[in-house]
Specification:
Helix content is 27%, strand content 26%. The protein has 221 residues and is α/β, with parallel strands linked by helices. β2 and β3 form a beta hairpin.
């Protein structure tokens, strides 16, 4: 099992309304994206680190560990495709992580890798805490969604390289957009294992998320 990490860090973060994309806002003196990357350096199974980021944003990353850069695409799956083109021929599995998730733990990454060894793909996820309903186009309630059947997806996610590539090809052929990485594996009929994640592994998307991330960081000191 030879693993590459792809950090997706090419988003513009418009909902944050900040002067730089959200993943490059400072958190404890480091850009959020660098903090999202750091835990993976301590996982011995990972041998390559690919960062998908615009050229003007690559300066935000430390040069202490060799990084391979790729350019972002229009959609998430386009950015992933560009990252996959940078992995070496020995790689068998790919971890994909969001550049705006700065609190993933080494323990969670290792648990995900263990699950990925025996599955087509695996993802960190959380049981939803909320009551969920489907709604109509006019925003009237349609039906209750059984909460026990619904999990909130997180990253990192892991998949066999060959299956991710096949999923991308099918998505392109059928003109489908897939909103998370293991969705490409499901698209070709693969099975994806859920690994229970951690609440602190939030994605920083809005000003509220950023304030919460700062609070989490300060409490961890």
């Amino acid at each position: 099992m030879y693993i590459a990490l792809i950090l997706l860090s090419g988003g513009k973060g418009l909902r944050m309304k900040a002067p730089v994309p959200k993943q490059y806002l400072p958190l404890g003196g480091k850009p959020i994206a660098q903090r999202s990357l750091d835990p993976f350096f301590h996982v011995s199974e990972i041998s390559e680190y690919i960062v998908v980021a615009r050229e003007e944003d690559r300066r935000h990353f430390s040069k202490s560990v060799p990084l391979i850069f790729a350019s972002p695409g229009t959609r998430r799956q386009d950015s992933l495709k560009n990252g996959l083109q940078k992995v070496s021929k020995k790689i068998t599995h790919v971890l994909v992580h969001d550049g705006a998730r700065p609190f993933v733990s080494k323990q969670a990454i290792e648990a995900l890798i263990r699950a990925g060894k025996n599955a087509d793909g695996a993802t960190l996820a959380l049981r939803t805490k909320y009551t969920l309903r489907q709604v109509t186009a006019n925003l009237t309630t349609k039906k209750l969604v059984e909460r026990a059947d619904v999990w909130e997806m997180q990253t990192p996610q892991i998949g066999k390289l060959s299956l991710l590539e096949k999923g991308l090809l099918l998505a392109e052929k059928t003109e489908q957009t897939v909103t998370d990485d293991v969705g490409l594996i499901e698209l070709i009929g693969g099975k994806v294992q859920i690994v229970e994640g951690e609440e602190r592994n939030l994605k920083v998307t809005t000003p509220f998320d950023y304030a919460l991330a700062q609070s989490i960081y300060e409490k961890a000191l």
